[in-house]
Amino acid sequence: MSDNKGVNKEKTKKTEEENIPKTNTEIPSDNEIQSNNENNENNNNITLETHDDIPKEKSTIEKVLEHGLKELEKNEQPNWYEQKEYIIFKNQLHALKRNNLYILKESKENKRLLDLKYDDLNNKINLIQTSVIFFSTISGFMQATKEYFSTEDSAVTVTSITISTYISLILSISKYFKFDEQKERIHNLREKYANLHNKIEYRMDVLGPWTWKELWEHQDPKEKLEQWKMVVEDMDSEYTSLIEAKQNLCTEYEIIMDSKSRNQYHIKNRELNYGNRVKINEWDKKEAILEKSIVEDLEANPRPKRQSIMLPNEDLDNWDDDI
User: How many domains does the chain have?
Assistant: First the structure.
């Protein structure tokens, strides 16, 4: 029995020894160490290669960030039309345009009435001169043909005296009312008003490019304001002379055109404007019908891009043509 117990103990010890994991206590050689290092490097390369794929994800992220930054920049951009320099410029531009338009409007109204009075005087003088020429010719014709047509001397004499009396009378009346002098004065005043109009329109042309407010976008407002100040200085220096010229013209205008004449020609001007507007409206309707028919014809029968024969008002700008 004792022997059996000893045998069993030995078997249990063997089984326990077999179940214990074996540990490798052997020292690795140099080749094994080198191979292990190479494997580690390969593993590192694999990890680096996997990291190289990350920038692609970063690029998309960067794009999103850049887009967000651009949106922020847009939102943070200054309002060009709320800056102090632009507000100063806008107010000065408005004042200059208003002053020019005020002088121009008043001058054109005065010149329009002067044109009407000049036209009436010119018609009167032309009528007087043509009548004098006509009757003088009739008197000479009768004097030359009285023997040929056997005209009585008394009839020719009376006719000649009548014509001479008429001529002297009508010329005396014309001289008394000073039609020729008035015509000359009105003509000279009209020329002066025309010169004033040209000067004001030149000022408006100078201000024209500045009315495009988009020129202030993405520009240095201080530098832009300095450029504008140079224009304002020129305008202010010329404005005094314009006022003085207007004062002199208004004085002459008041002398020539009294209140009765102004009222008379103002009513006549309204009548002419009314008639002109009626005629213009009629022609606008006719042109609208014509344009509609042209469009319909073009849709039905397309034509060449550029016609061989162009009317004067059809080709105003060569830049309108496509390249």
Answer: 1
Q: Please report whether residue 135 resides in a domain.
A: yes
Q: Determine, yes or no, domain membership for 309.
A: no
Domain-located, residue 62: no
Measure the CA–CA gap between 195 and 192, rounded to whole angstroms: 5
The tens digit of pLDDT for each residue in 259-283 reads: 999 999 999 999 999 999 999 999 9
pLDDT band at 23 (very low <50, low <70, confident <90, very high): very low
- Distances from the Cα of 189 to the Cα of 107, 253, 255, angstroms: 11, 8, 11
The answer to whether residue 71 sits within a structural domain is no
Domain boundaries, position 223: 84-257
Indicate the pTM of the whole model: 0.66
Q: How many CA atoms lie within 13 A of 157 on its CB side?
A: 3
What is the crossing angle of helices 179-207 and 221-256, to 10°? 170
Most confident of 70-74, 78-82, 91-95, 217-221: 91-95
- As a whole number of angstroms, the distance between CA 86 and CA 221 comes to 7
